[in-house]
Amino acid sequence: MIGNLKEKAASALGNAVPDTILNFLKQSPVPLKVGEIAEKTGLDKSIVDKAIKALKKDGKITSPERCKYTVS
User: CATH no. for residue 10?
Assistant: First the structure.
């Protein structure tokens, strides 16, 4: 049930989460891990992970180091 609530919350936010993450990564001087992004933005780690995958697929972010992400 909790997972279902997280998915509903993520879909209700639409593009707000990826935009928030993208803006956060633009401000970061170093590549960050999913857990670091989640902790610093206050977002759930699983939602951040899904948004990171979508941003990477769209070519908006890259992974210069294993499991770390930055803006393309």
Answer: 1.10.10.10
Write out the two tokens for 45: 């780690």
Which position has the higher pLDDT, 67 or 7? 67
Average pLDDT in the 67-72 region? 95
> What is the tally of structural domains in the chain?
1
Closest CA to 34 of 64, 71, 69, 9: 69
Q: Name the residue range of residue 45's domain.
A: 2-71
State if pTM tops 0.70. Answer: yes
Given a contact cutoff of 8 angstroms between Cβ atoms, the answer to whether 24 and 37 are in contact is yes
